[in-house]
Amino acid sequence: MGPGIISRLTEIVGPSGVISHATELMVYECDGYTLEKSVPDLVVLPSRYEPFGQVHLEALAAGVPVVASREAGGAELIEDGVNGAVVDPRDARALARAVGRLRALPAADLRAAARRSAEPYTYARQVAGFTKVYRRLGAATPDFP
Question: Which residues form the domain of 120?
Answer without folding.
Answer: 3-139
